[in-house]
User: What shape does this take?
Amino acid sequence: MVGFLARRLFYCAVLVVMTASTALLLTRVAPGDMTTSLRAFPTTREINEERARFALDRPFAVQWGNWAASAIRFDFGESSRYRRPVGPLVLQAAGNTGVLAIGALLVATVAGVGLGIVTGSQSGLTSGLIRTASIGAVSLPSLLTSLALLFVAARTGWFPTGSMTSADATNAVNHW
Assistant: This one.
């Protein structure tokens, strides 16, 4: 059992390093960077200062080494958007995600058990429709499902969407 857990932890660490490295590499090959996309810095000098502040002017290997050293210390830097340390922001988002996950689990459990009782206790059109709808829902890619649910949440206000507005949801759906 200890060997199994050690292998799983090793694979998790490799996955984190590969994912972070790929993300860093993709941001390097993409045109522009966060300083040019914010459009909050009117002069070239201010853009260069901001790039130096976030170490965007350094080579890929130096950036990766800085990231790895910081990640080992669980220091994920400062948010460029909020100008605050990332750690507390991640904890806040994790709390919100946990609340949404528990809510989704409860809704899915109640709906699943209820619909399972209906389909198991009778046959006919209702049972067939429930089975067809559930197979269709499970077959949809999660990206499409999440975008559709995000669109509904932003349009109706029934669920928290952070700072996303109805127009943001419409743009996200139109983009896909």
User: Anything to note?
Assistant: The mean pLDDT is 82. The chain has eight helices and no strands.
